[in-house]
Amino acid sequence: MKEDDFLGLTLTEKILKAHLVDGEFVKGSEIGLRIDQTLTQDATGTMAYLEFEAMGIPRVQTEKSVAYIDHNTLQSGFENADDHRFIGSVAKKHGIYFSRPGNGICHQVHLERFGVPGKTLIGSDSHTPTGGGIGMIAIGAGGLDVAVAMGGGAYYITYPKIVKVELIGKLSPWVAAKDVILEVLRIMSVKGGVGKVIEYTGEGVKTLSVPERATITNMGAELGATTSIFPSDEITKEFLKAQKREEVWTELKADDDAVYDEVIKINLSELAPMVACPHSPDNVKSVNELGKLKIDQVCIGSCTNSSLLDMSKVAYILKGKTVDPSVSLSIAPGSKQVLNMIAKNGMLSDMIDAGARILESACGPCIGMGQSPNSKGVSLRTFNRNFEGRSGTKDGQIYLVSPEVAAASAITGYLTDPRELGDMPEFLLPKEFEINDNMVVSPAPAEEMESVDVLRGPNIKPFPTTKPLDDKIECECSLKVEDNITTDHIMPAGAKILPLRSNIPAISKHCFTVCDEEFPARAELLGESIIVGGANYGQGSSREHAALAPLHLGVKAVLVKSFARIHRANLINAGILPLTFKNEDDYNSISLGDRLSLDNVIEDIKNGGDLKVKNLTNGKEIMVSCELSDRAKEIVLAGGLLSYTKSKLSK
To answer: Is 543 considered catalytic here?
Structure first.
């Protein structure tokens, strides 16, 4: 893509137009994009590769596809190890690069070693937009969408609104990139980015390094945004040069006369250290507003804040100090590259001397894989989500902060403003990173792929069976939930449940147990049912298991006030009807156990998606909407994306 191919456009529009394969550029319409790269991680990867296998395509069609092992690295039984072996063998057979456990968190490693400005990337993890830090259109998606893209199919999104976030000024000492995205979340909220791309511009961009930009784009997922993006400039070039990948760099930026749908201006110079309070990333206050909060735990790492730059700041703050006796401090460098470099330059020793517990380069506590806080414990985390129960402790009080706030607070035992540390030195990225890709396994050559055996363990079960849409749905409401239900509510993570990600029948027994422990048994007994929910239903992780588990339990439709983007797409992919109330007040017209009926479903879907729901229990009738693109209609009618894709391939 050349910079002068398109004129008068945003950077987002330039990349989207260069990859358009289906549809037209009309706001709110559906467009299909050519996908250059894909990534998966092990919590979603097994199912994605089972889906890819089911399509019968021998080798991936993308420029680069990478399978990462970073989520399920706690091997307390055979399940995770079997999944890793399966993914490694599938990758070797079908043309996918395999990042072994210990090589690092997918988004950190992909930024370092594989990301390319101007390319499109989709990943079966909601924080894939991290790649926007180097000027990619990087989007989180369900595993089935990723499987289709690996097979050469287009990835479909709603043509987004584009929000310009103009950055001016420069961050003050000890104020961080994390504070920038927390400020954006404070302004826009966790549902303010739905249907939008967040594009960062302005002179302030030049003051931010690539790792800082990646922190900001990473947490754009918490806005509900399709993705976030920074321009690719000289700072991007220097980062890629230091990674010995300068040849992939190209300059990319919006045109001076680009038109945006919304504009937000943030003066970096005016920001202060911020905190996202329990239990939502947009519940943002300043450190000073919260005051002297006693803490029990500090966790530093995750795909949001585990770069070499972050580790450098943490090591500096901890050097020569001792972690407060009442605080447990754990640190997880984001990649083998980062861990190796802090080991060689002495920073790792500074952390260990201070009393930090060093974790492997993986997602760890962020996904609930270890380090759960004590009951009612106050935990400061440099992560991206603080949903209730996500830490593994149901009543844990999780606060999201920058690495600077986290490290300073670990020393004092209280929430601490890092500006109290005094002068801040200049933290610079190295001219050259340590490059050692020996933990990335290349796929077998095409001529050898037939001889590669795919290794399956007993916990790996097939994709759930689907069937074409029924014209009449009549069943009970098996669950009614409130606003802002997350995919962690629907399909919890954590060390006990994550190993079941390859086994939909087993993991379904945990579906919605955070909200109602009786739901799985009730839904299974009913055979077919409908779930009713509030606004922003399905926010959070891209995990398609939050759709596949309800599918296995017989859920035919989900009726809510509004959906989060990825989860709605995952429901469609699973063949579950995503319905929204025409009048949100009708939410109060349905109770748990009410018997609901929908007639002429197929005809109504084909004719625009206005359907009538009859509440047979109380006699009320309500209108609901199921607005779908022509392609999405075909997917739902076929019983899901896998059935739809297989039928297309057979033709």
So the answer is: yes
